[in-house]
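tool=predict chain=A
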Amino acid sequence: MRIPGYSTLEELEKDFGFSIPSETKKKLEKVIKIHPMFIPKYYASLINWEDPKDPIKNMIFPSVSELNLAGSYDTSGEKENTVLTGLQHKYKETVLLLATNRCAGYCRHCFRKRLVGISTKETLQIFEKAVEYIKSHPEVSNVLISGGDPLVLPTEVIEHFLKELSQIKHLKYIRFGSRVPVFYPMRIYEDEKLLEIFSKYSTPERRVYLVTHFNHPKEITGESKKAIDSLLKSKVIVSNQTVLLKGVNNNPDTLVELMNGLVSMGVVPYYVFQCRPVKRVKVHFQVPLKQGYEIVEKAKQRLDGHAKRFKYVMSHKTGKIEIVGIIGNEIYLKYHQAKDYRKVGKLFKRYLTPNAGWLDDLEIPSENRTKVLTAQVWA
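tool=predict ok
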């Protein structure tokens, strides 16, 4: 599939009439050489190129901050959870398939920056082997097809995925993770064959879900609404995961407008993710946990029940950890999902440290201090 868009700085300068200073341009070229740039023409049209703080631009246009190497390329333990090339099995109920390394646009905050848009050996090579693995693991109730973005693949490939997976009796539903409704929505509503396929395989016995990724209300346009409406009419259940990003949506007003906009067009708010400490991402985008919690809770105060169904979580190597609350210098956390299933539902606490942005930045209470605090609670 060919998506109209921009992959060089010169193309953008020409079409949008701006000029990048030579020294900055050299640094940006260095970034792009490592992590490619691709901005769909449709998405580029949503940007105010005269505003250096435009939130859409911040998500898709490279930054010199990407030269900062703080962080890790694998913050969620994907390597250790890979059991076949392109197949991860971290949570017992879910298998993740990395179907491609391509996307409709390259987010600068991508947590799979290590593989997206560049040559990689991490994506699925033989789909039939993945099917056999899933068949041999009856505890698996769902498959998440991700990447990259699986909806940039040919429609015939998507049909093949659904046909084969739908024959596995113990699968309750099949998910696609895609930002295509945001980056290139016409790929969905103009492809009648794709919509027919979704409608065929999304049945009362086994639904097809699409988890999309709106981060800012400016991404909710007439075009994206049309794409979502086409999916809903094709019996696809659509949910959304948002990443809390500095310079994009790190204020309550933006989150309120975003969540209300999602619910209005029939999309279920699913997660708000703490930005992972990914190399070339952490410094540019991560918001401290204390600040993030305050932003999320202030937004929830202004949202109705449907619009605040999402959980604010960290996708840590040990599991999905919900940020439950902060009292004083203590942060309370809970395993919403865990690699070790025995930890699911476990409530625990850590001590906040200045600018802590991830579980590993937090201090573990000492045994003696825990005993004292426990005694105080029950006194």
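The chain has two domains: 5-67, 82-317. Residues 82-317 form a domain with the TIM Barrel fold (CATH 3.20.20.70).
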